[in-house]
Automatic annotation (TrEMBL), chains A, B:
The gene is hisS. It is found in: Cytoplasm. This is Histidine--tRNA ligase. Keywords: Aminoacyl-tRNA synthetase, ATP-binding, Cytoplasm, Ligase, Nucleotide-binding, Protein biosynthesis. L-histidine binds at residues 94-96, 124, 138, 142, 307, 311-312. CDD domains: HisRS-like_core, HisRS_anticodon. It catalyses: tRNA(His) + L-histidine + ATP = L-histidyl-tRNA(His) + AMP + diphosphate + H(+). GO terms for cellular component: cytoplasm. NCBIfam families: hisS. GO terms for molecular function: ATP binding; histidine-tRNA ligase activity. Residues 1-385 form the Aminoacyl-transfer RNA synthetases class-II family profile domain. It comes from Thalassovita taeanensis. The keyword Membrane does not apply. Its EC number is 6.1.1.21. Homodimer.
Length: 497, 497
């Protein structure tokens, strides 16, 4: 028998592009998602948790000839049975493709229209980069089967409520609404209707850059081309300056109020039926949200919203945080978008052949968490535990009784479970746990019926800043009767918060 | 160019062995997990959410020569770079293997001991069966780096608190504790120490069947063999009746109280150092939980707990629900186990070579949910929304204003977003949504400044059971002033709950 080779030790590493979340990172996100779910629920949306694994077929990726299906997903092939090859399965890459599958599969049992929300991880098989992970959270709400723009208006007001619920103050955000149909109308008046193909696509792609290059940049790109910041020359679409006018007029048609903006848009699409319909829809959305009490300080018509105009078929919305932050280079800039969505009408057509209207929104969970952190709104519900130290390892029962009392009073508490020999290690442990309070009961204290309670937060402050006088005036360690354990700890915790 | 073949429509189906969760199924589980997280947090455990994807290497599955690694997991190979083949990745199959990887990877930053809890889906590439899914939830708590059985005692009291917190009444459950070391002691007294190999393994495997075959069955299996219920003969281990005695004595050593049980165990392991150590540990656990106020009505020493004795290295615990249910065949039986765990000391050794003690528990999320459903304790926080019907599609703004008022008062409400032409469809929709109340405002009502509010729950009851007299006495539809919308809806909802 060949000598067995000893297997090398495995590497303890997350796969590239994946990460772990610890403590507050988990609970803060859970807390935020729970608040969002509360708002969605109030709007009549039902929770849906679809399987993380879908058939590649249902996800809408098509198998190429090669072994590996679409490179953008994590996919594998099931074992086959006899001659029959196994299905290709994949991790979901978003929450919309699974919604389409779920709706097609269960449409006979689901209410119509179907309002659903979904929260959970999605996976992308992409090259990871700094801050770019291959597993991340999405949080979506969609209404399937409602053709009325009342459904879109509702998504907008829900988005506004959601942002305020999680802690973004009114005035610090804006839900901006545009409509693909208005753009279609503009293109129609330019002679670039659906059939115009390449030119139309080039114009759509150019519009998508409005966010970055602004009005002058879009004008250059639509006509003769543009020298970008890196010095590269980007070819233009080749329109004349006059031909580019309507597009620029559309993008910059925002006026001081909704009425003004709508009038500008009406002028820009005159003669196009689809364009007029788009403006009518925007007008109705503005009316409906106003009827619910949402003014332009929360939701506004803004034709400069271009993100997703190429993908969506009707109203498009984006939630933007308007306060300023400093970017990594120290420059001030607006925080920017944290959610986006719109109307798309081919949700389940792939499965059933039937066109089903749908509209929805997706919140960027990590970006919104970052915004809340920026604003100091992530007051974690979790604080470090009270640590009961172990002075005498034979009296573990006494220490366990103390933590039980504290927990029964609703106070987070633990007994030190490491080797108790070195007391310094116990205090270092309490420090690592960000413990607010330590409890000490040695043999001497036990005999006297008392315990020592250390206020670790105050202790740290004093150690850092206090003068000797202050230090004397503000003791951070208290000797109290054993029976006063819970009362004294509670008093200290209340003083800290 | 060859004519392109039209792709057939994809099937709208979850992959075999996977499922979707709708509405209350999601929120009830979330609510239960949130309560559990609250208890874990109070005990000083920190949340950990590790990546769903691990390297096959880290998971502890070894690549065979063939293409596909271990068949028990869902695995795939990353694209390689140049000559270097890509890593094999896999979905985690439990929450313990990732804990080992996380602890080994981050041990320098983590507190020591490290108490962590984790909740989330895990995936098993197994043949699906009725009620057996390939994706399901686990909910674990573990303490890494604490050798003291105080850590085990703490897990037991935490498990007790957890069950009561989610709604299992005291008296309806029992946390039972055993210890692998005691069994080792028994085997040692029989001459079956670690080196005895095959015989010892056979005895361990037999003990694992004690739950199913009982004392007489174990005795048969340890000696000459047993005819099982299906008529098949199972070979015995081949011990003599006298040799089997100590094992049976161990399994049946439970007495009327902990002192009695411990005395029986001490007799069973006399002369074995490891056995005596095991009994001492059980005694200490009993003392520690008693010091915290947990009596034998909640936590008890029970040597008949055998599940996992083969896997764990020290204390073993199991939470059993003691109330009776009817099984699928109409027979009464105890609900049984909903959680189990124990001490295992080789958690991170694979990665670091260093032995790190660990102890923990895993709650069977689906089984515990089933138990709560059985006990009627899953009072879902989610009820159907108030449905504001659409009588006049041009006045959508009026209806949106109503739902906004209701939501601002914290009441779940939605406007009907389907085609409003057929009013019957709107009521059918409200029915499907399990809506408690419908609101109606036609042109006539609008002119008179009133609205109609229908109590749908009462309406359904009346339709089912009431006599004409009762029907007259208990109207289920009310005409109220438009301004009283919120007050009246709230009154009806309060009457229903």
């Amino acid at each position: 028998m060949a000598k067995q080779k000893k297997a090398p030790r495995p590497k303890a590493e997350t796969p590239k592009g994946f990460r772990d979340y610890f403590g507050a990172e988990v609970t803060e996100r859970d807390e935020m998602l729970r608040k969002i779910a509360g708002v969605y629920n109030r709007y009549g949306f039902d929770a849906l948790e679809s399987s993380a694994v879908e058939t590649v077929e249902a996800l809408g990726k098509f198998l190429p000839d090669v072994e590996r299906p679409n490179a953008g997903v994590f996919a594998w092939q099931e074992d086959g049975e006899g001659e029959k090859p196994g299905d290709w399965l994949a991790l979901r890459y978003d929450l919309t493709a699974p919604l389409a599958r779920v709706y097609a599969q269960h449409r006979n049992e689901l209410p119509m229209p179907y309002r659903r929300f979904a929260m959970g991880p999605v996976w992308r098989n992409e090259k990871p980069g700094p801050g770019r992970y291959r597993q991340f959270y999405q949080c979506d709400a969609d209404t399937v089967g409602a053709a009325s723009v009342a459904a879109d208006a509702e998504i907008c007001s829900m988005l506004s409520d959601t942002l305020e619920e999680v802690g973004i103050a009114r005035g610090d955000y804006l839900v901006r609404v545009n409509n693909r149909k208005v753009l279609n109308g503009v293109l129609e008046t330019m002679g670039l209707s659906d059939e115009a193909g390449a030119d139309r696509d080039a114009v759509l792609r150019t519009i998508d850059k409005f966010d970055k290059v602004g009005e002058a940049g879009v004008r250059e790109l639509l006509t003769t081309g543009r020298l970008d910041a890196s010095g590269a020359f980007i070819d233009g679409v080749g329109l004349s300056a006059a031909q580019a006018d309507p597009v620029v007029a559309f993008l910059t048609s925002k006026a001081g109020d909704a009425a003004g903006t709508l009038a500008n848009l009406r002028a820009a699409v005159s003669g196009s039926a689809i364009g007029v319909q788009g403006v009518d829809e925007l007008e109705l959305i503005a009316e409906l949200v106003a009827a619910q009490g949402y003014g332009p300080d929360r939701i506004e018509i803004d034709p400069s919203v271009v993100r997703g105009l190429g993908y969506y078929t009707g109203p498009v919305f984006e939630a933007e945080l308007t306060f300023e932050i400093f970017d990594e280079k120290g420059r001030k800039r607006q925080f920017g978008s944290v959610a986006g969505g719109g109307r798309y009408d081919d949700l389940v057509k792939r499965f059933t052949g039937q066109e089903v209207p749908a509209t929805g929104v997706s919140i960027g969970v990590d970006r919104l968490l970052a915004a809340l952190r920026e604003k100091g709104r992530l007051v974690s519900a979790v604080r470090g535990p009270v640590v009961v130290t172990v002075m005498d390892r034979d009296r573990m029962g006494d220490y366990q009784a103390m933590v039980a009392e504290l927990r029964n009073a609703g106070i987070r508490a633990e007994v030190y479970l490491g080797n108790p020999k070195n007391f310094g290690n116990q205090l270092k442990y309490a420090d690592k746990r960000q413990s607010p309070v330590a409890v000490i009961e040695g043999g001497d204290e036990k005999a006297r019926g008392i315990i020592q309670i250390k206020d670790l937060i105050l202790g740290a402050q004093i150690a850092e800043t206090a003068t000797l006088e202050e230090w004397k005036d503000r003791p951070s360690q208290f000797e109290v009767a054993r029976g006063d354990l819970v009362a004294k700890v509670r008093e200290i915790l209340e003083g800290q918060s």
